[in-house]
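Researcher: Good morning. I'm working through a list of sequences from a screen, and I'd like to move beyond sequence-only analysis. For each chain I'm collecting a predicted structure so we can compare shapes side by side. This is the next one on the list. No need for commentary yet; just the structure.
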Amino acid sequence: MVVKVSKVLIGMLVAFFAIIIIGLPIFFNATPTGKSLWNSWFHSVQVADDNTNYETKKKVEDTCRSMISTYNSDKLIYEQYKDSDNTEKASWAEQAKMRANKTASSYNNYVLKNKYVWKNNVPDDIFMVLPYIE
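Model: Good morning. Structure tokens for this chain:
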């Protein structure tokens, strides 16, 4: 009798683990709820990793500084040539204005997506918003 019970118990355990091994991948890959749970968990891991990883913070700050530099350069070109009587220089000003505004838009979106890296401790040379040139 003991042998029959242990065989039944082993059979039930094998069936249970087989269902788990087959069912979990199907659940996490084929159902919206499973995908949502999977993505949520990996997002949490990525945020925790980014919060403790100096390289991520450095990359975000370097990218911001680079975009600020590009914006300032285009803004200075615009301000230098915006009132020019020369049509070519006026065209340079208009092109610089468009580039500066495009950079400001990209920068503002980038900061919005990556502001969690600083946790309200933004470096002094990084701005939360770059203004558009009117």
